[in-house]
Amino acid sequence: xxxxxxxxxxxxxxxxxxxxxxxxxxxxxxxxxxxxxxxxxxxxxxxxxxxxxxxxxxxxxxxxxxxxxxxxxxxxxxxxxxxxxxxxxxxxxxxxxxxxxxxxxxxxxxxxxxxxxxxxxxxxxxxxxxxxxxxxxxxxxxxxxxxxxxxxxxxxxxxxxxxxxxxxxxxxxxxxxxxxxxxxxxxxxxxxxxxxxxxxxxxxxxxxxxxxxxxxxxxxxxxxxxxxxxxxxxxxxxxxxxxxxxxxxxxxxxxxxx
Length: 258
Known about the structure:
Blueprint: E1 2-7, H1 15-25, E2 29-33, H2 44-49, E3 52-57, E4 65-70, E5 75-79, E6 92-97, E7 100-106, H3 116-137, E8 142-147, H4 171-181, E9 186-187, H5 188-192, E10 201-202, H6 208-211, E11 214-215, E12 218-222, H7 224-227, E13 230-235, E14 251-255
Parallel strand pairs: 1-2, 7-8
Antiparallel strand pairs: 1-14, 2-4, 3-4, 5-6, 6-7, 8-12, 9-12, 10-11, 13-14
């Protein structure tokens, strides 16, 4: 079973690339982020035409997350995280699909920092930690997949100095990410690729793609029951170089079937 996470950076603008990627790679489960689409304008017909059922939590012009499943419909468990009733950002959706509990996550960026956006990022991460503990308590095979907007270590960025002031790699961001991992989640990519550069994002600016000046912010975290089934994990890097591609590349893990 192949499960992928993909920040599409606008599903309507990138729809041809998304459908192309679905056709060529045929993942079983896909977690999408940054739809930039309202619930009403989500391209459900196109997704179904590609052979995928879908659930989504949209927001016009910003944010937005979805879960796709090949040949079936995911069953919604929840949309949004508890803890801040006034938070209207569409950043979290969770479903039961193909025997897994799956969450699609679009964690706040947090820039500029310090400031209220960074404070919101840290609060959001703590809310995610609480939900992650609840999922672990259910003892189901689970995957928390998405754009975490966290560079976990200096080995996950082309230049630590260049990103030193960015919210993505502040000590506070990294501490909250490690706190999540230490609950018992396994980082699929680093399990299969423990050393060396492996990027998931290249900015559109300053020739970042051409210089391979990227970093790793898209993660698949596996519960123990899912991690026991991990076969492989990698990044579909080549798709980032296609015309009008997202600035992220799809990141995926393969789990052994039960």
